[in-house]
């Protein structure tokens, strides 16, 4: 992106192209290359009910990572300051790791990803782009708040996941650590703190998404 100037339409087309890559799984090249934390962990013994529960929770987390892709792509395409764009790059790459790890785990559990992923992507991309248009500091504030909410959400999943599902737990624990770091990076890059009313609306949207994605 550094060699030429892109207008808004160019950026939307690039975002659409990257979105398609996210939805069809063509994202391995842009991942950070870290090892899947579940690889070093033995397979636990799970009942059918536990397996279904884990697959549902991991589907929710995969849908969240699809949204994270959209959010970072929207923010990255609109960001005015190239230094801010660069500082978000590592976080964005780690989100691709998360997407890959969740997808692999869902397949191992015999589950499927959310059929509403295109909707989650489109919604988050629109929000990310809109936040970007408000200016870098607000857009970073939106990312920081999202990441902080995700940390809390993942803490809840660690309590709900079957104790024997060591692989999913290893993935979620690493994601939780990464998301906390992403929030710090966004705050250090100059994020503005969002008003409480906006935070509450974000919590409601996230609740709607996580509840729906568990079933669909
Ligand atoms: Fe993530
Ligand atoms: Fe994150």
The average pLDDT score comes to 85
The molecules bound to the chains, other than polymers, are: fe (ii) ion
In the predicted model, the low-confidence regions spanning at least 5 consecutive residues are: none
Quaternary organisation:
single chain
* Helical/strand content category: mainly alpha
Which value, in Å, is the CA radius of gyration? 17 Å
CATH top level label: Mainly Alpha
Per the CATH scheme, the topology name is: Ferritin
Number of helices in the DSSP assignment: 7
Provide the CATH architecture.
Answer: Up-down Bundle
Name of the CATH superfamily: Ferritin, core subunit, four-helix bundle
Q: Number of folding domains?
A: 1
Helix content: over 70%
Shape: globular
Order of helices and strands: HHHHHHH
How big a fraction of the residues is strand?
A: under 5%
Main β sheet profile: none
- For the record, give the distance between the C-alpha atoms at the N and C termini, rounded to a whole number: 36 Å
């Amino acid at each position: 992106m550094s060699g030429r100037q892109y207008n808004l339409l160019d950026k939307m087309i690039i975002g659409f192209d990257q979105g398609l890559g996210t939805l069809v799984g063509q994202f391995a090249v842009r991942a950070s290359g870290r090892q899947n934390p579940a690889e070093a962990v033995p397979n636990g013994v799970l009942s059918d009910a536990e397996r279904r529960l884990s697959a549902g929770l991991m589907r929710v987390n995969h849908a969240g990572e699809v949204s994270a892709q959209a959010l970072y792509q929207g923010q990255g395409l609109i960001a005015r300051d190239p230094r801010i764009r660069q500082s978000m790059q590592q976080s964005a790459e780690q989100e691709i790791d998360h997407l890959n790890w969740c997808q692999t785990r869902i397949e191992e559990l015999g589950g499927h990803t959310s059929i509403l992923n295109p909707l989650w992507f489109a919604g988050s991309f629109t929000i990310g782009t809109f936040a970007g248009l408000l200016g870098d500091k607000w857009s970073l504030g939106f990312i920081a708040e999202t990441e902080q909410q995700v940390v809390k959400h993942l803490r809840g999943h660690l309590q709900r996941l079957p104790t024997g599902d060591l692989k999913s737990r290893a993935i979620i624990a690493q994601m939780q650590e990464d998301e906390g770091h992403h929030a710090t990076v966004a705050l250090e890059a100059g994020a503005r703190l969002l008003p409480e009313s906006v935070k509450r609306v974000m919590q409601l949207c996230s609740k709607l998404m996580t509840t729906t994605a568990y079933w669909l």
